[in-house]
Write a structure and sequence with these properties.
Layout (H helix, E strand, L loop, with lengths): L1 H21 L11 E2 L7 E2 L8 E3 L1 H7 L4 H8 L3 E6 L2 E6 L2 E2 L3 E5 L2 E2 L3 E2 L2 E2 L9 E8 L3 H4 L6 E7 L6 E10 L3 E12 L2 E12 L28 E13 L5 E15 L7 H5 L1 E17 L5 E17 L5 E3 L8 E3 L4 E18 L5 E15 L8 E18 L2 E12 L3 E14 L2 E12 L3 H5 L1 E5 L3 E5 L7 E13 L3 E13 L2 E6 L6 H7 L3 E7 L2 E16 L2 E18 L4 E6 L3 E2 L1 E12 L3 H5 L3 E11 L2 E2 L9 E14 L9 E11 L22 E12 L9 H11 L1
């Protein structure tokens, strides 16, 4: 038996050795990927001093995700979502939305729905790649970057003319319509995007949780698991290049989303009689200049507005209490009531200076002003907050095999004064191996909403949610150790981390006796939840990612995430610390994939880049734990996708890839799993069961005319570079 095992081990080692020797002959789509998020400066992915996970454009195309939530949960193991009408309740390694900084082309995403990010603001068809940096990054990016940073890199306009249409349809009237028009006039470029999305929603169960609605047994509710919604978005970006290396830009965005809540027996709208609407707008302008000595200077200013409304649908009037009982509001069908108007103004200055071959210095200044008006949701008519900061970061390469990156940020908050946030990381390069170690501190001041929130919800019993003006700023210490092996065909990465958050802010159930007496007399709540600083909280875990190019167009891989997340709060009744599970955390999550790309043979078919792609994807989660309303069930889901594409080239144009045609199709949740947990309790997943989708992409790209025709080899080289 031992001899047989020894023989099998020898064969396995021989096969691995042969594979590793062969890996120098091919390159994957990530080996030469350039990333910027971890340090704010450009590095090849394999040489990034801070561990960075990348979802490439090729991976995005193969997966065919319907939205950003679908993409992140399907292609990485560290994310979890609990979508509802209020937005995407996202978690990264155990910490929620307010600790995750989402950037679009390096600029902060704005849009807060009940404390959740509305990821519908991000059109999947515009994404070129996604860079994910886990752990505290406050030294570089400021507040909200305690759990990590997600940087959405969008596709840039090509030279010449670009017209693109993507039409996608699927089960439950799930439709996405994306259109892009790109124009070039000398040194000026325009890129216009129009995005429309809809779904009719679905219902996984007609049962209401009797413990949440006064003990009634309801088995024929009209409430849906996911409600019908419509989304419209228009964006424009203008760029001007007055000289080589310099760019001036201005862009704007308008966004509207409406969620249609059901009417009928026991439906939520029968009680409240309104739909939910979100109206957002954004505008920004900036300048950047990269000199011949590779100095980089940039400045920009941005304004964002997020509006949240109730659009009343009831034929009879609804009385809504205000802070002045003598002046109540009565709303009728067609009326609109403002729930929150959030506005943010930001300004940034940044400089990157390669001082010597061994030293690169980054410095910057950030300013942010937040303004909130929510007449029915905060204890004041308006609330404001402002923060400014200066930072510096040094990248030092004392030897070719060693990189040390150190940064420091000085933050000045209008309410909480000054705070220093340092970070230190090191990377040791040993051939194809990389060893990385990081330590970083995070800082996050309470938001105006967390301080002034006051909201009453009547669902079979009054529930009172309150802010807290006595909140303290949150700080964190993040430690990580990463080992990575990366070649042209194989990458294996393992990261262990520990994130200690002090004064963590969370909604905590408190005794009704601790609520203000006037609110108790006014609302007589069944229970009260308030934002409180936890005495201590931490997340710790291990992330493992593997990707292997087997050969002949086959790629396999996956990821696994183990997480432990705990916190405690002082209980005044027992005078002891009470242990809490951080809501929504699961100990185990994972994902798997296998894809096959086949390029058709023959000069004509190769010249057209004719190819087909097939992909099988799986993701799983163990039980998700919550303090209230039950735990979310464990699940595993599987997805099958395929695509076919080719390009008709126009040889008169230099930059052109001609007209591209791409057909995509897929089946999601092929095992037809449905979580039928009653309404008002937590779900493991909101999937309705097996669904199908299909999409058609047509892209016409006409570049700059040249005298000589583009030959087959030039076109082939361009395809290889893009792949």
């Amino acid at each position: 038996m031992r001899e047989r095992l020894s023989l099998m081990a020898g064969v396995a080692l021989l096969a691995i050795s042969h594979t590793l020797r062969a890996q120098t002959t091919l390159r994957t789509d990530t080996i030469q990927e350039v990333v910027v998020t971890g340090t704010g400066t450009q590095h090849l992915l394999k040489n990034a001093p801070v561990q960075t996970e990348v979802i490439t454009h090729k991976m995005l195309q193969q997966y065919g995700g319907r939205n950003l939530e679908d993409i992140l949960s399907g292609l990485t193991a560290s994310f979890a979502f609990s979508e509802d009408d209020m937005g995407s309740q996202m978690q990264l390694n155990g910490l929620g939305n307010s600790y995750i900084l989402i950037l679009v082309d390096g600029k902060r995403l704005h849009g807060d729905n009940g404390g959740q990010n509305d990821l519908g603001l991000i059109d999947p068809a515009r994404i070129e790649r996604i860079e994910i940096v886990k752990g505290a990054a406050s030294a570089l990016y400021g507040s909200d970057a305690i759990a990590g940073v997600i940087n959405i890199i969008t596709r840039k306009p090509a030279q010449g003319w670009l017209v693109e249409n993507e039409t996608r349809g699927g089960s439950y009237a799930d439709v996405r319509q994306h259109n892009t028009v790109g124009l070039t006039f000398g040194r000026v470029q325009s890129l216009t995007n129009v995005n429309y999305r809809q779904t009719n929603g679905w219902q996984n169960t007609a049962v209401e949780d009797p413990t949440q609605i006064g003990g009634r047994v309801i088995t024929d509710s009209k409430n849906k698991t996911v409600n019908k919604n419509r989304l419209y978005q228009l964006s424009e970006r203008l760029t001007w290049q007055p000289m080589e290396g310099m760019e001036v830009f201005a862009d704007g965005m308008w966004y509207h989303k409406r969620i249609y809540r059901p009417n009928g027996k026991y439906a939520v709208a029968d009680v409240h009689g309104y739909d939910l609407s979100y109206d957002d707008a954004a505008a920004s302008a900036g300048w950047s200049w990269t000199t011949r000595k590779k100095y980089h200077l940039a400045a920009d200013i941005a304004w964002n507005r997020h509006g949240y409304y109730y659009d009343y649908t009831s034929e009879r009037g609804w009385l809504v209490e205000t802070d002045d009982p003598a002046r109540p509001n009565i709303y009728y069908d067609g009326d609109r009531a403002l729930q929150a108007d959030q506005r943010r103004t930001m300004a940034q200055l940044k400089g990157v200076f390669p001082l010597t071959r061994e030293h690169r210095l980054s410095v910057g200044y950030d300013f942010r002003h937040d303004w909130l008006r929510a007449p029915q949701r905060i204890d004041a008519d308006r609330a404001r907050d402002w923060t400014q900061a200066v930072y510096a970061q040094e990248e030092w390469n004392p030897w070719k095999v060693l990189n040390v990156t150190a940064g420091l940020r000085l933050t000045h908050n209008g309410q909480f004064g000054l705070h220093l946030s340092p970070k230190l990381s090191a990377m040791l390069s040993l051939g194809d191996f990389r060893l990385r170690a990081s330590w970083a501190q995070g800082f996050k001041s309470p938001t105006p909403k967390e301080q002034h929130y006051r909201y009453v919800r009547d669902m079979g019993g009054v529930r009172l949610f309150m802010g807290n003006t006595d909140l303290k700023p949150q700080t964190s210490n993040y430690f990580s150790l990463n080992a990575e092996y990366r070649t042209s065909r194989l990458s294996v990465s393992a990261t262990g981390y520990y994130n200690k958050v002090d004064q963590m802010i969370n909604l905590v159930t408190i005794p009704t006796s601790e609520a203000p007496g006037d609110l108790i007399l006014r609302y007589d709540p069944a229970f009260v939840r308030q934002y409180r600083n936890l005495e201590d909280a931490y997340t710790a875990g291990v992330d493992v990612n593997v990707r292997w190019n087997v050969g002949k167009g086959v790629d396999v891989g996956g990821g696994y995430s183990y997480l432990k997340a705990r916190g405690s709060v002082y209980d005044e009744q027992t005078e002891q610390l009470r242990r809490l599970t951080i809501d929504g955390t699961a100990h185990h999550k994972g994902n798997l994939f296998a894809t096959w790309n086949y390029m058709f043979k023959g000069e004509k078919r190769e010249e057209r880049g004719e190819k087909i792609t097939l992909g099988l994807y799986g993701r799983a989660s163990s039980t998700r734990h919550y303090e209230n309303y039950g735990n979310g069930k464990a699940y595993h889901l599987w997805r099958l996708t395929g695509s076919y594409e080719f390009t008709i080239h126009n040889s008169q144009y230099k930059v052109s890839r001609g007209t591209l045609f791409r057909v995509e199709a897929g089946v999601d949740n092929i095992l037809n799993y449905v979580d039928r947990t009653p309404h008002l309790r937590h779900l493991g997943t909101t999937t309705p069961g097996t669904t199908v989708f299909a999409a058609l992409v047509v892209r016409f790209n006409q570049g700059t005319k040249v005298k000589q025709q583009s030959n087959y080899s030039t076109i082939k080289q361009k395809q290889n570079e893009e792949d």
